[in-house]
Design the sequence.
């Protein structure tokens, strides 16, 4: 099973409600759904962490318009039941802030030692089987944010570049790609993404027709 747990890389994920989503809403106008893709989600700890953070920090109307698509190649469908049911062992949830845990988790009556995440969080996370090697998104949507951490390192360099190009095509003009700290944008792709926040690997999509404008915006909003 994937080595993942709730509130891993908390510093990066908390940039979503404080910097990334406000920027997106400012750029496109405060309307429509916010679509987030957690690519290579393993047991779902990361997309559920995102949902918890956004629930606790965003305006209720904005959170209600937020959809998180959680995908994984999921050999033998071992993650489907975990994510769909939202049941996690105590070891996976021990880093969740106490008040947040008490607010959104209850003991799982069917699995001793496990905890169930509440429906008002679970309903915002949609699990789907997906193979990144298909070079297509899991659904026919433009995404505002794509999060792909600790995944591309398992691919050949040329395949990871093709996947990043697919991410680029799938993002809205004002969209963002988020990776782990060790995953840099490959050389030669600098014209596609610009680092948005210097301390983390959060990259904003650069549209070719708006390169000058995009550079100005990035400088204005980066920390």
Sequence:
């Amino acid at each position: 099973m994937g080595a993942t747990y709730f509130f891993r890389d908390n510093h990066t994920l908390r940039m979503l409600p404080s910097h990334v989503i406000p920027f997106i809403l400012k750029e496109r106008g405060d309307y429509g759904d916010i679509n987030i893709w957690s690519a290579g989600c393993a047991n779902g700890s990361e997309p559920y962490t995102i949902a918890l953070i956004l629930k606790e920090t965003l305006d209720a109307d904005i959170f209600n318009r937020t959809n998180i698509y959680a995908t994984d190649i999921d050999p033998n469908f071992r993650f489907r039941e975990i994510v769909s049911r939202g049941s996690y062992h105590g070891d996976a949830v021990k880093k969740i802030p106490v008040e947040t845990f008490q607010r959104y988790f209850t003991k799982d009556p069917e699995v001793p030692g496990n905890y169930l995440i509440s429906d008002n969080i679970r309903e915002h996370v949609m699990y789907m089987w997906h193979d990144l090697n298909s070079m297509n998104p899991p659904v026919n949507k433009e995404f505002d944010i794509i999060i792909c951490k600790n995944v591309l390192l398992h691919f050949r360099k040329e395949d990871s570049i093709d996947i990043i190009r697919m991410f680029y095509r799938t993002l809205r003009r004002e969209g963002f790609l988020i990776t782990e700290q060790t995953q840099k944008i490959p050389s030669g792709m600098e014209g596609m993404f610009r680092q948005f926040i210097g301390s983390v690997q959060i990259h904003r999509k650069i549209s070719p027709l708006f390169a000058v404008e995009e550079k100005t915006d990035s400088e204005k909003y980066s920390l």
